[in-house]
Amino acid sequence: MTRKCIDCDNKESWYLAVCGLNHRTATIEERAPLALGHDEIPNAHLELANFDNVYEAVAISTCNRVEFYLVLKAGVEPFNVVKNFYRNFRKLDISHLESKCYVKKELLAVEHLFKVAGGLDSMVLGESQIFGQIKESYSSACMVKTAGKIIHRLFHLSFRTGKLVRSQTSLTEGASSVSGAAISLLKNQINGNKEIPILFIGVNQMIHIAATTLHKSGYGNFMFANRTESKAVEMAEKYGGSGHSMSQLDKLLESSEVVITCTGSPEPFLDESNLLPAVENGNGRKMIVMDMAIPRDTVPLPNHKDKIKIFDLEDIDLYLKETQKSREDAIPEAEEIINRKLSEFGYWYEHAKSEPLVMRVEHELERIRREELAEITKELDNDTTKKIEEFSQRLIDRLLTTNRRCKKGH
Predict the structure, then answer these.
(1) What pTM, to 2 d.p., does this model score?
(2) Strand duo 242-245 + 258-261: pairing
């Protein structure tokens, strides 16, 4: 798939928008089919930009949100673009999710991204993990050239805004990532047993944070399993323990009392068929499963809660609501920073939007000037014609310069 040239200056009227859904607007079951894997993001960007009415695009997909930042032709509705994207990209009809999606346009879209980058819109208030995920999505868009001057300006300013919020407020004090919060919840369940055998499934940022947090707390009886065994071995070398391929999963489950899983599997792979035998073959020990994946890696087992406790992202969300109240006092200060940066972007944005119109006016004035000159100089000598042409050019230039100054002053 080839990428069409992005140049809003040469397009018809356009505007910036975001369309998405997150942990506040939709359940895990509703978000899961829309989640985009890390390897899918570049092609997703290209698919979005392949629509004639989409000039620039960035897709962000995390465990708690799926969002599309789009520069669109005026009059085009963001949800329709996203709906058509999933129909083409995944053969998926998301019409029934329209009420679960939020659409924010122009500066409201900018404000939303600034809040996400600053950690104000996260499941974990003030968390830093989302900041890196935004950067990765933007980098992907840059690589496949679906980011133009609007997206470039927007995301670079969002990065500066996020850094200011983190450095100049107390919003991040005591904050953690989703995986860090999951470990806090886990610690409450295992009562400080540092020797408890823990199985990590998957290798990604979430698993790295979980392993780092536990390792720093003195836990070390680790097993790592991954589709690519060498990556699991690397994790074991870094944090201690052993690395394995997923083909050994059943035996690893039998040796585990805690399972921390976060993979990109499209379907659950931990269910009654492997979790129950693992508990029974493991001398009847109880098992705790922390599922940080979306879609879920586990199938809920409500009839076996006495043997297997499964915690997913919604359980983590409930836990977080009880622990993050102390950081809420920093919200007004963070919002002040965001509003300041929003004003900065707003001035630039309005100027960028007016540029195509200014160019069209300039071209039209030049056409009229030449047309009138051709008519009025038919019977004039060369010297007079030259003077009139120079005068008309100076007049047009002064009018345009005055107009630009008035716009800047405004």
Answers:
(1) 0.70
(2) unpaired
